[in-house]
Design a protein that fits this description.
Number of helices: 13
Helix content: 40-55%
Structural class: alpha/beta
Strand content: 5-15%
Oligomer: single chain
Largest sheet: 5 strands, mixed
Bound molecules: iron/sulfur cluster
Number of strands: 9
């Protein structure tokens, strides 16, 4: 099954990142924001490409701060001190240009809350007749981030601060490696055989995150026939949307139960019971996921099974020291 199949890329993958998250002093007040990103954990997996759209469009450091403003129903990035200072167009155009240059990146981490780089919940201030007319809501997305996401909807994206959360961080890392692996597959030539092999590898990972998307992917492949060239982008949106969902305890337990079946005939009674008890313990919240996973991997080490060996569920991204 692995013969000639493109390998998942090894670290470091290239990650685009808001430049201030690297600690570079490019914010409006000349500061950086290194603390808003978990460097120690991610630096072994990624090589960073810092991007500061506000500096890139010539706003300088230090500069007048900007905010998102709702002016006659249109969201703009304007100077806080004077809404006539409108940077919406240059920021959007720069984002569209950058998106064309991100062919080698596996993900993009944005600075939260920024009118340029914020991904979710950026404050939007209402304006009427050129004046602030009320309290902000948190419905906005930074202009640069919006341009990137619109051009590259499948690129894994996240905010730096959220990556301090271990569940969100693991989810993001997993998506970046899957995305990079898919890109490798496409660059080596996508055909029905290697698409099926790719899906086989991601089947249980996708099941853990979303059975709904696993079914969608199965239907998409079943309807593929010989239209692979025109439909080549149909699989990735399903995979990315599914992996974006956080894997639940019941999702993991269901996958573990499936994987256990592959080993059943090779295990003696006590080993089978120990594995089953460990999965049940995990399902009930009495054991960490690592317990049944470690047992599965241990048995797999003694009785290699080609199908299981390549399951990305068991190894969603490379381990680093
Ligand atoms: S949030 Fe974006 S625009 Fe603002 S300083 Fe950081 S990289 Fe530059």
């Amino acid at each position: 099954m692995s013969e000639g199949f493109p390998a998942r890329p090894e670290p470091p993958l290239v990650l685009a990142i808001s430049e201030c998250l690297l600690g570079t002093e490019v914010r409006y007040d000349g500061s950086g924001a290194k603390i808003s990103f978990p460097h120690r954990v991610l630096s072994e997996l990624f090589e960073y490409r810092g991007i500061c759209p506000e500096v890139a469009v010539g706003m300088g450091v230090p500069r007048e701060p900007i905010r998102l403003a709702d002016i006659d129903g249109v969201i703009r990035a304007v100077e806080v001190s004077d809404p006539a200072g409108d940077f919406t167009k240059p920021l959007r155009h720069y984002g569209e240009r950058v998106a064309l240059e991100l062919g080698d990146v596996a993900g993009y981490v944005f600075m939260n809350g920024s009118p340029s780089c914020g991904l979710h919940g950026v404050k939007v201030y209402p304006y009427q007749l050129g004046k602030l007319s009320g309290a902000p809501d948190r419905s906005g997305r930074g202009i640069h981030a919006g341009a990137i996401v619109a051009r590259l909807p499948q690129l894994p994206v996240e905010e730096g601060l959220r990556l301090h959360d271990v569940v969100l961080r693991e989810n993001f890392i997993c998506r970046t490696f899957a995305y990079a692996h898919w890109r490798n597959l496409c660059s080596e030539g996508l055909n029905q055989v290697n698409l099926m092999a790719f899906h086989d590898r991601y089947r249980y990972l996708l099941m853990a995150h979303s059975t709904e998307h696993l079914q969608q992917a199965g239907r998409w492949i079943a309807n593929l026939k010989d239209t692979i060239d025109t439909n080549r982008n149909g699989y990735l949106p399903i995979l990315m949307a599914g992996l974006k969902r956080t894997a639940s305890r019941s999702g993991h337990a269901s996958v573990l139960t499936h994987l256990q079946c592959y080993l059943k005939r090779d295990l003696d009674g006590p080993a089978r019971r120990e594995l089953a008890a460990s999965i049940t313990g995990y399902r009930r919240g009495e054991q960490p996921l690592q317990a049944p996973l470690a047992l599965l991997k241990l048995h797999l080490g003694h009785r290699p099974d080609d199908y299981l060996r390549y399951q990305t569920y068991l190894d969603p991204y490379p381990e680093v020291a």
